Amino acid sequence: GQQVMQIPQYQHVQEGEDFTTYCNSSTTLSNIQWYKQRPGGHPVFLIQLVKSGEVKKQKRLTFQFGEAKKNSSLHITATQTTDVGTYFCAGVRSNDYKLSFGAGTTVTVRA
Amino acid sequence: GAGVSQTPSNKVTEKGKYVELRCDPISGHTALYWYRQSLGQGPEFLIYFQGTGAADDSGLPNDRFFAVRPEGSVSTLKIQRTERGDSAVYLCASSFDKLAGELFFGEGSRLTVL
């Protein structure tokens, strides 16, 4: 089963608002990745975090890796209709190379 | 090709039949993964190849599932005696190296077992 948990499962956002989705692992991760899957599409890589406490930004998206390397978050500011889709976090345990995906946060945007 | 190619894109079969799903990874990518995704769920790991060998097949649900990658490039996922519960989108992904991180996914093969 999946070892990575994501909350919330669904996020309904008013266009222009901010939101955050969270990812938690029961085990320490060597790295964590985030993917976006548009409706009817396939997962597309967004970013990888490796270091404890690491923060990376991509325009309106901010990704954070927790100090204990067991959790991560994705914060989106000024949500746009192009942000619609499902965001997955995926973690790799130490001494492993298998990427385990969470169940995803599905984002819908009200114009 | 420019990306990961999977065929067929859609496969409808009857319960008990045998199915093969093909994946052609990005040229030069040594790592290849198979995942299965059911509606509303995240991709579920099935098997990982590094080169020609299956480095980790711990995600294969049972012995009806088998995958090969004989020349270290194209891979085939084989499902025997299909069951209705096998219905899902089967995703293939490749990466340059097992340590490279980013996975490039194909469009998937949607399998429906009637």
Structure commentary:
The complex is a heterodimer of chains A (111) and B (114). Chain A is an all-beta fold and 111 residues long. Chain A is 0% helix and 58% strand. Chain A is globular and about 45 Å long. Chain B has no helices and eleven strands. In chain B, strand 9 and strand 10 form a beta hairpin. The model of chain B has no long low-confidence stretch (mean pLDDT 94). Classes of the chains: A mainly beta (111), B mainly beta (114). Chains A and B meet through strand 4, strand 5 and strand 10 of A and strand 4, strand 5 and strand 10 of B.
Q: What's the total number of strands of chain B?
A: 11
Shape of chain B: globular
Distance between the termini of chain B: 33 Å
Number of DSSP strand runs of chain A: 11
Helix vs. strand class of chain B:
mainly beta
Mean pLDDT score of chain B, rounded?
94
- Total helical elements of chain A: 0
